[in-house]
Amino acid sequence: MESRINVQAKGQSALKTIFGIGAYLKKSPIEKQLLELVNFRVSQINNCAYCLDMHAKELLELGETIQRIYSISAWEETPYYTTRERAAFAWAEAVTRCEVGDDVYKEAMAEFGEEELIDLTLAITTINTWNRFNLAFPTTPGTYRVGQFG
Q1: Which residues does UniProt assign to the signal peptide (predicted)?
Q2: Structural domain boundaries, residue 85
Q3: Alpha-carbon gap, residue 127 to 130, rounded angstroms
Q4: For the chain, how many structural domains are there in total?
């Protein structure tokens, strides 16, 4: 692949706003592990290898099991996830695909309060943004270190 813009070096002004969203989400009442699971699932949908590497490493650091990580793409067929996690995955898939129906909304609202669902949606749209940056301006998968971005 031809070399592209190093967005980490040249895009700091633009990325500062996205990092600010990340700082906000760290204070969210939604569990960090759940947010990382959602980040991983959305990154699977978007085929973002760098983000898959990053969020797998973060999940392992949080104590997540290998089985639950590698099974996320088949979450509907496995018994490994809680009702809350399943609602988050369904919501993440719907928001990522821009196909948010009433059924998935009701399911999400049954598990998340209004403010939590807003935070979850912000997390989903943010990882979608990161995925798109990493696909447009590729970063080498495998280079991420846990906690690298704060």
Answers
A1: none
A2: 32-136
A3: 5
A4: 1
